[in-house]
Amino acid sequence: MSSVAQSGTASAVREKVAAGRRSTGLRLIVRSLARDRAASLGLALVVAWLAMGLVGPFVLPGDPNGQELADALRPPAWLEGGVREQPLGTDHLGRDMLVRIVYGARTSMVIGVSAVVLAATAGALAALFAAEWGGGVDEVLMRVADIQLSVPFILLAITVLALLGGSMGSMVLVLVLAGWVIYARVLRSELLYLREVEFVQGARALGASRLRVIFRHLLPNAAGLVVVVATLELANVIILEAALSFLGVGIGPPEVSWGTMLADGRDYLTTEWWLATLPGVAITVTILGVNLVGDWARDVLDPRTARSE
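Structure (tokenized):
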């Protein structure tokens, strides 16, 4: 058999082995999720949140900012005075609460996912430079992270949003500035460990380039940790967006935010309770689902948990 044929056979065998490992890993993850009832519930809640944000605005008719003062403060359909056409009632301006909650889910989803992805990317890049190049690069990046941590988030958010306005882009920028540090610090510590393990040292000894070591060995083995941190941080980002909107420095019209809905309903807590309770329930349920999935992901994907066991 020629060397070319042998090389092709060896390559095919390696591909089959890699595919088998991926399939086995996926089956183990699905099996672990099926056994964990809390994680399954969390996943169902997260899927419902994503469905509201992605599909809800196209399926549910109505303008979230459409005002009908004649229908103002109408209670939910299960209470006296409610109607089926507006199952969750209306707010003080006659706007449909169900429509606004659905559009609020889209706002929280767009801001939350965008902020988490960008913060994870920025933090991962900073961690790679700090761990792989070390020395002065590591020192500068970690001191910048320390400075970032020393600035109170609310002060940073109010300053940036006052200068740039309460748009979605400004909100994402604030959350990225506040969130990249945790990815950089956590991933840096993991990469410093991975640099010293045998297979990475062996790759360097065999002459692998720095970029090959990074993309072939370091990043694939640290990706699970990034997913875990991102999942847990998503809940924090959703809360921060709602809090800033509640304070009046976040998302403003025509965009709808659950935090703004909470602020609108706080003056009616003792009379029209649904104005603040319903968006509060939406926030609570979403955060619960994300945290349950995050806890499960930490147990399954966090390499430090596996090492401690």
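The domain at 25-308 is CATH 1.10.3720.10 (MetI-like fold). Residues 4-8, 10-22 have pLDDT under 50 and may be disordered.
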